Amino acid sequence: MKDMKLGLQLGYWGAGPPAGATEMVAEAERLGFDSIWTAEAYGSDALTPLSWWGSQTTRVRLGTALCQLSARTPTAMAMAAITLDHLSGGRFVLGLGVSGPQVVEGWYGQSFKNPLARTTEYIDIVRQVIAREAPVTNEGPNYPLPFPGGTGLGKPLKPIVHPLRKEIPIIMGAEGPKNVALAAEIADGWFPIFFSPNAVKAFEPALAEGFSREGARHTADDFEVIAFAPTLIDDDIERAADGFRPFIALYIGGMGAKSMNFHFDVFARMGYEAEASKIQELYLEGRKDEAAAAVPTSLIEDTALIGPKEKIRDDLEGWKESIATTLLVSGSPDTLQTMAELVL
Question: Which domain CATH number covers 210?
Fold first, then answer.
């Protein structure tokens, strides 16, 4: 069996900075966690907290899970990656994702069209910048460099700063089959935001397709799968499940439109389409408490680790035998200690 790694998922902020984050980062490094991760939605950004908290670490990898493509041009993203990689001594990992139309069009004021083509171009430009082998150009329609038209004075440039490494690992967030296949083809790893060891077969054809494409960077043997593993230790399983029901209801019901919600689609592929439809309907009607109550405990047990320590120890066997290479956990220092004991 492979050596499973642990990562600390700090996520994005709610109404303000999360309490105790500095202590959790220190505890994760002390316990032997491999990495810490921050995220962004439409509030806090991913890079600033990662820099702040990461400056107090010496060993763990520092990753974004994830940065949204529409938040920065590809060259700006590469500049941030080069900068953080230097400041951390080569510990930065770049997690990227397209987000969804609500955020891309409603928050960033950009078109959501052609997400696969945009991702491919974006990552190619980021890698060009970091490689620093030639002035950066791109002929694609989404991020043309130099900009066509305008003053006509634009010219291809190389970064002033010499990157610490020729490559920085890029992990892609992906949920739909085409995007998962693209991650397997062009990225160094994959974030499945909702991961179930019992339902991972739903993703295997897409992953296999990506690995088989000409020019694929990896095989299944050296590809990172960084799976979110929400953990809540509690002798009362239902009480533990209640801690996650509002979160699941938000993503199934509120993080997307009825006509396009990638999170909804993931749970449907896991076999929960009927339940997800009911949750979505209640949520969109404004009945959020009822939507949360409609989230079945079995769905949470499939995608999270909940219950007494002994149950979590048993449930972890499925995660360890799955394709996941790192489990991203969050919670109190006691939760981190227990997970380190059970996994590391």
Answer: 3.20.20.30
